[in-house]
């Protein structure tokens, strides 16, 4: 049996761990052959492949990024996209596809599986942790770790100069990274996209923190927005991951805090460093187990499914369930964390 | 209301995060007063206390260890131990105890709560992750991260000299640290206490790895034992955490591998570095949430309970459930990981 | 004898190590008393002091920032500034001042020492490493380490998406951080303030890198400028360290590269994280030795001097020598490193 | 021109950075061809080579170990060893050898160059930093960083349990790693091979530290010895780097401290993790510059020379000078650091 593998969307620490696990188990236990498709859906669309066997996955476990490359190519937006994919798969004798990706990549997989009978198995991937049906996605823990370390560092700078530091972290639609890294980093304010923030309240927290002789750290998700709706965004171009970028909330907020409280405020935008580099041990563990279970789905002929984490178990869920709605931060959880604000 | 807090047993990254969360929420939301007891059960036994208020928990979130100190004092083994604790609590007007500890510490809490009516809430703590009723305990992720980084480092040394490297990690009764760090670190053999290992099989894996022109890394839990029972232990004294130390398995195994395969082999015993230093973001998150929920148990008068992680939720379980049996590695999980051996 | 200590200018990892070493040696070996002045020159100007004895310096070695606080207050710009400092020192019986700071802070110390007879000893501090008369300043190694780790992380993102990544690092007037972190991080282009860059040449390097199937990393010091002088700066306000901020070179360059080469390009501005957090072992070593030797200067009555690193020795040089001119990157060294461009 | 490259002795972070720099500059600027010899002197002795061109050195900068492999093979101890090397070099048209190694490896290079006319250039390599004629060797900074991080971690464990922690670090003949990591890690006692220690004095320091309510960290180089000469060594076998291993000083000392002071004491032997993994930014910088200058020596026909660091300059010195005597810790420097003991 020949199995294709592709990685789509933004890169994410742990992708290589999935690929390695899929190949190691598939070759050693089930005798499968593998074909790597290059750059997400572009690979099967254009028949662009890369060798994928045991030697090809040696030493890739601790490496960030993806040895298969990635892209945002959507075959549904290409003429005869699906037909070309089916033809290319047939030409290569590929009988099943393991697709590792987020909402978009898996959305294509769902349609391929459901509407066109292409046997697909999904592996969830989003550094933002905002995919339903799984407790966590790999890459998230690494991103939170990087952001937390940065916040740890910024504390000493804030204290030395008694200055507000606003840290903008990833999270366009969901505040998971902000929430986790903000809590772990001892932030005094955490702002997430799920709840529009009240700039006056933020300033009150900042002021009360200074009154206790400490300098405040404000962690803000890139997608957070003020309640008062008066934020002038500096830039609304498409970002590097293909979405409209509502950038600038960090800088905007630092300016507002300076203006309204009279305290010096600075911004740090963590940016791409959050998604690069070697995955954390947790992410290697999760990604590897996702890979092992994905190849089991292929063996069981259990297509249209995605592997997912539930507690400490890896389970299978319909791909469609995972992409149906975004997993956002529960208001109760946000409230729980709110005890540390101010 | 006045609430006592103590930390017992071996130190563990995240203890300070629990203490901080308990105090921040207890003081700010419920208006509690807190008393810190020094060095685990020794504190209430001898009436040795430490101030525990908001200023006392400032800045401790990222710090390893415990500001309260710890010990293995067991009041049940002291004459009138329980009576003295009850008297000391009464003298201090302490109406509830939050006890943060492992099997032993929580075992005392259970008996205090059940048999003597001392209102206790438990927070699970074991770096080995071997406590039932909770998906994970804090400190474990940090330990796995440190061990994984060490294994990453050892790979390059092993390859440069084509030499076997045996890494002995923590885990006397359960192989969780070995399993997670071994998988994450790309180890070629992982040996855990739950399954006696076959030294010949280990040597076969080592040899096959060399045949593929790679140098093997063997990760072994300190409590792992050979099936053939011929291990001569160099030392059976009480270890630093009060248990009989079955030490030397790493060194023993390296010697056996050298003798049986003719390959050079070296051992690294990671030791105490695994449990020290700043907690990982995951552990800060988990420990903080445990602390927040523990103080909620006090508010609800829900005593004899322990907070626990289930998926992404914090739940309450009877303390007795958690200490009834050790959580060991499921044979199926060990088999799942076995695809990477050799 | 009573000795004052102050830290001025931007915070820098290692400041606390200097303070600790000064106090430990001064108290233990010479029986000195110490007075900490708060927030740089603001302290002696306003008589704002902080207790500085052995307990006050416990545990501060690994902490970033400065326990004394810092500011950019320049007493020469305050009416009767010098007189007020002399009066305050007299009032407190302070007979010598150890001033830890950069060009500006030490410049004030020189004038105080030379013109007004205030006995000052200088300890050089600049994260940018651009102070003459010393091989290295502490904080620089930490900053280079943080930037290098970030560049390491960005490589995998760049490769996965075949995209140019521009990393803007600190260095307004000197390119030391860019040069060291760029070389250590395997950057394909490094741009420094000392030499205006040719945007066409940068684009040629980028293109040649892609031709070899690798994605380029461009490291650019914040003070680097294009030769063609056509850079439109987005912002020329005063930055957090009191200088005119010629910001935006990273973003400007990424845009130019996109326009001129057709390759996708992204920017990461590392910002404040480079100067925060725990100092590297090298910086703790250097800062500690600076502190030990500074207090020896006081004992020897050797005022108007600054401690400096020459090879592995700590020497004393006139403060004025160190502040006379900026230490910039030697064109020969830049050329040496140029072998890795493209 | 064809140039051979080999790496001998123990592995060391930065070896790959040297190799990469040599090849990048040699190929690009001078048009050289390169031959890699496998496993130190074993390579030229047996004619065992590995391809060494630009693609072969891609991506190796951040990787520990050596892509050429290493060994302790000494051709002078093999029959006709020198003749065979000369024959093999001739057969391969190799006209110059760049030998990267420590005392032993460079010792062979000296004799080859001096007595047999084989044109050699040396690059110094010792993780212990004990080679004369150079301020620092690469690998040392990485090892110090790893040891310092471990000591940082151990502090919290020591404090939580009020227990002595003895940390045994590398350094058989010179105490550089102990001195630097001990100072940077805030150790309370540092013991080095250059000065036999007085166990009673160590115990006095330990006791005085406890009296101040802090738990002591004792850093001891593996080659340190008690003055009283009563240390019973557990093992005198050849160690992994071919020297007699005077192991066990850490464990011995912990036992003595327990016996003599009554305080609980534990040992951590850092071992191989100190020499593995990714090199620090400083080591990448130094190793790269060593490589660039070594290939310049070849171009200049300047054989029998070794590159060395003096301040911030790379200079050339006769190889013989570097291997003539060990660079040990100056008693004055040790005394300087002694202010922190106890």
TrEMBL record, chains A, B, C, D:
Annotated residues that bind substrate are located at: 126-128, 163, 170-172, 222, 266, 272-275
Subunit structure, per the record? Homodimer or homotetramer.
Site keyed Important for catalytic activity and substrate specificity: positions: 104
**What name has this protein been given in UniProt?**
Pyrophosphate--fructose 6-phosphate 1-phosphotransferase
Catalytic activity as recorded in UniProt: beta-D-fructose 6-phosphate + diphosphate = beta-D-fructose 1,6-bisphosphate + phosphate + H(+)
Domain Phosphofructokinase, residue spans: 2-298
What does UniProt list as catalytic? 128
Q: What class of enzyme is it?
A: transferase
List positions binding Mg(2+): 103
UniProt-annotated binding residues for diphosphate: 10
Question: Taxonomically, what lineage is the organism?
Answer: Bacteria, Bacillati, Actinomycetota, Actinomycetes, Kitasatosporales
User: Where does the source fall among the domains of life?
Assistant: Bacteria
Q: Name any cofactors this protein relies on.
A: Mg(2+)
Q: Does the keyword NAD apply?
A: no
**Gene encoding the protein:** pfp
């Amino acid at each position: 049996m020949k199995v294709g593998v592709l990685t789509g969307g933004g890169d994410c620490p742990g992708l290589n761990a999935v690929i390695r696990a899929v190949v190691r188990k598939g070759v050693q236990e089930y005798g499968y052959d593998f074909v790597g498709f290059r750059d997400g859906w572009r690979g099967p669309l254009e028949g662009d492949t890369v060798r994928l066997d045991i030697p090809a996955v040696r030493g890739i476990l601790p490496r960030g990024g993806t040895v298969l490359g990635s892209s945002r190519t959507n075959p549904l937006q290409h003429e005869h996209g699906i037909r070309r994919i089916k033809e290319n798969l047939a030409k290569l004798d590929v009988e099943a596809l393991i697709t590792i990706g987020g909402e978009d990549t898996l959305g294509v997989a769902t349609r391929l599986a459901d509407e066109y009978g292409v046997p697909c198995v999904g592996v969830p991937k989003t550094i933002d942790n905002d995919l339903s049906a799984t407790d966590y996605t790999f890459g998230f823990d690494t991103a939170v770790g990087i952001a937390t370390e940065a916040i740890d560092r910024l504390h000493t700078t804030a204290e030395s100069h008694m200055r507000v530091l606003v840290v903008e972290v990833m999270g366009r639609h969901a505040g998971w990274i902000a929430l986790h890294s903000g809590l772990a980093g001892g932030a005094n304010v955490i702002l997430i996209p799920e709840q529009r923030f009240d700039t006056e309240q933020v300033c009150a927290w900042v002021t009360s923190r200074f009154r206790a002789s400490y300098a405040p750290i404000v962690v803000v998700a890139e997608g957070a927005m003020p309640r008062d709706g008066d934020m002038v965004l500096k830039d609304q171009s498409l970002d590097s991951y293909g979405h409209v970028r509502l950038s600038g909330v960090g800088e905007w907020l630092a300016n507002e805090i300076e203006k309204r409280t009279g305290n010096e405020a600075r911004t740090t935008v963590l940016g791409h460093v959050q998604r690069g580099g070697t995955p954390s041990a947790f992410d290697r563990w999760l990604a590897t187990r996702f890979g092992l279970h994905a190849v089991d789905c292929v063996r069981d002929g259990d297509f249209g499914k995605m592997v997912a984490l539930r507690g400490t178990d890896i389970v299978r869920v319909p791909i469609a369930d995972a992409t149906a709605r975004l997993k956002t931060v529960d208001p109760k959880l946000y409230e729980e964390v709110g005890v540390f604000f101010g």
